[in-house]
């Protein structure tokens, strides 16, 4: 049975294009709202945190606009599910090393480094379709076969403190975390909204998680 | 491993999709929304959408671009007539994932630098239209009409130094003839570019994609072969897979 009473929101803190994400969820037949006021976060029970650009710019905006407190309140205390996508996943971590060191939301312990710092000698940014190696059977991957391809655009990657929070990894000269989870907190380094049918299924799974 | 990509190219003349030969003699190729919906449902890896109308754009027709990007659930690269950061900004806001620069950057190469700084190299594809003249590859602009006098290698170097994230190399001589890509051109480009190179111009059968792969291309753009023949992107993937090229399998729902 499809559960349609999900109240889903996409956080808009002023960077990036949220249209394709909204379209993708609309096409799954769920109601989704793009919200730009932190105080509205409490009306929703599924939160999607997208992001493009730099860790530092994103965190500055998140703090400036007051998203950080609302996100922590809704995710840590009210235990609502959140899905960080791409940079949105990276800022879930403790610290980012992009243009200096910036503190993240610290919802998952770990730090974000340039792929090169992590030992990657291949072309950066890592851009294009790449496959995921599923480490843990999670609801996020329901009906998604192992080694499915997703669309990535990243120069940085997450290094988790606790490796058991890694749901899948992807190889680009080195292995990096492509999907992570800590209880009600999810993150994907790839863009499900750009990943055709596989991405659509993943968003569907998150919404039904 | 990053997957090799199959990319249908769509040329929009302001009224309909078209496809020509050697950049001229354009033939109609269908309505943009319907065509893109079909490619999207067939799970292609990416879509190139180029506006080749000669309309001087003061403003991007955002509603039109949105009608295109709304039907796509794979990355879409938009190009044609882009002259300013504001223009690019409008395209990104209308759903473009990458933008493609060409004619304007010959007289204003700083546009590459500025765009790479603002949007990131990964979002900037440089399209280079090339004709072979007395054994030399020369860059052309304005839909292949104007000889820029620039030789290909120094131009590639400059684009890369300024932050280009991808090179789309287009052979005007092979365009639309379905006689195979210009492999010498592809090889030359891939040997001198440390970013992904997209082969374009001349694909006529699946083996042409394979040959472009052997010459180092990261992605294969094609128009005529998909518009006008029975060859399909899915067929191309099957063929390349048999040849052990690392391509993305089309997604099949796993029932657990």
Question: How would you portray this structure in words?
Answer:
The complex is a heterodimer of chains A (209) and B (256). Chain A is of the alpha/beta class and 209 residues long. Chain A is globular, with a radius of gyration of 16 Å. Chain A has one domain: Class I glutamine amidotransferase (GATase) domain (Rossmann fold, 3-Layer(aba) Sandwich), CATH 3.40.50. Chain A has 5 helices and 14 strands. Helix content of chain A is 22%, strand content 34%. Chain A has helices spanning 19-27, 55-64, 67-77, 87-90, 196-207; strands at 8-11, 32-35, 46-49, 81-85, 93-97, 101-103, 108-114, 126-131, 133-134, 149-154, 156-160, 166-172, 174-182, 185-188. Chain B has 256 residues and is of the alpha/beta class. Chain B has a single domain (5-242), classed as Alpha-Beta Barrel (TIM Barrel), CATH 3.20.20.70. Helix content of chain B is 33%, strand content 26%. Chain B has 10 helices and 12 strands. In chain B, α8 crosses α10. Chain B starts with a strand and ends in a 14-residue tail after the last helix. Classes of the chains: A alpha/beta (209), B alpha/beta (256).
What's the quick description here?
The complex is a heterodimer of chains A (209) and B (256). Chain A has 209 residues and is of the alpha/beta class.
Tally of helical segments of chain A: 5
Our estimate of the beta-strand percent of chain B is 25-35%
Report the CATH superfamily of chain B: Aldolase class I
**SS-derived structural category of chain B:** alpha/beta
Q: Major sheet of chain A: size, sense and barrel closure?
A: 8 strands, mixed
Order of helices and strands of chain B: EEEHEHEHEHHEEEHEHEHEHH
From the alpha carbons, calculate the radius of gyration of chain B and give it in angstroms: 17 Å
Largest interface: A-B, 36 and 38 residues
Number of separate structural domains of chain A: 1
The CATH architecture name of chain B reads: Alpha-Beta Barrel
Q: Give the uncertain stretches of chain A in residue-range form.
A: none
Strand order of the largest sheet of chain A: 2-1-3-4-14-13-12-9
């Amino acid at each position: 049975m499809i559960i349609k009473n999900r109240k889903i929101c996409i956080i808009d803190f002023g960077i990036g294009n949220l249209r394709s994400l909204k379209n993708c969820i609309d096409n799954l037949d769920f109601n989704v709202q793009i919200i730009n006021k932190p105080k509205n976060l409490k009306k929703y029970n599924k939160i999607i945190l997208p992001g493009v650009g730099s860790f530092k710019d994103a965190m500055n905006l998140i703090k400036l606009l007051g998203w950080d407190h609302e996100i922590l309140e809704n995710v840590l205390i009210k235990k609502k599910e959140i899905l960080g996508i791409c940079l949105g996943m990276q800022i879930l971590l403790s610290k980012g090393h992009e243009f200096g060191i910036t503190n993240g939301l610290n919802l998952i312990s770990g730090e974000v480094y340039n792929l090169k710092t992590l030992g990657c000698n291949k072309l950066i940014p890592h851009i294009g379709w790449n496959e995921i190696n599923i480490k843990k059977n999670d609801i996020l991957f329901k009906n998604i076969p192992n080694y499915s391809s997703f669309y990535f655009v990243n120069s940085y990657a997450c290094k988790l403190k606790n490796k058991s929070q890694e749901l899948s990894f992807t190889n680009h000269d080195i292995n990096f975390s492509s999907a992570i989870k800590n209880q009600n907190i999810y993150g994907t380094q790839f863009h499900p909204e750009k990943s055709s049918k596989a991405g659509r299924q993943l968003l569907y799974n998150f919404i039904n998680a | 491993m990053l997957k090799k990509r199959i990319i249908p190219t769509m040329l929009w003349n302001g009224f309909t999709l078209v496809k020509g030969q050697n950049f001229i003699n354009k033939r109609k190729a269908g309505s943009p929304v319907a065509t893109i919906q079909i490619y999207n449902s067939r799970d292609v890896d990416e879509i190139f959408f180029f506006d080749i109308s000669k309309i001087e754009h003061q403003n991007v027709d955002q509603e039109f671009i949105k009608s295109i990007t709304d039907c796509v659930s794979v990355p879409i690269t938009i190009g044609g007539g882009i002259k300013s950061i504001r223009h690019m900004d409008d395209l990104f806001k209308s759903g473009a994932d990458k933008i493609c620069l060409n004619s304007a950057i010959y007289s204003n190469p700083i546009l590459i630098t500025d765009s790479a700084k603002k949007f990131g190299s990964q979002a900037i594809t440089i399209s280079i239209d090339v004709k072979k003249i007395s054994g030399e590859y020369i860059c052309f602009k304005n839909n292949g009409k104007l000889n820029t006098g620039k030789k290909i290698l120094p131009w590639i170097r400059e684009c890369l130094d300024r932050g280009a994230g991808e090179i789309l190399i287009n052979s005007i001589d092979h365009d639309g003839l379905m006689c195979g890509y210009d492999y010498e051109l592809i090889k030359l480009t891939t040997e001198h570019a440390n970013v992904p190179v997209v082969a374009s111009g001349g694909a006529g059968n699946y083996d042409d994609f394979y040959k472009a792969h052997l010459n180092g291309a990261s992605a294969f753009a094609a128009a005529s072969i998909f518009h006008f023949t029975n060859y399909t992107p899915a067929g191309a993937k099957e063929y390349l897979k048999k040849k052990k090229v690392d391509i993305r399998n089309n997604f099949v729902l796993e029932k657990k």
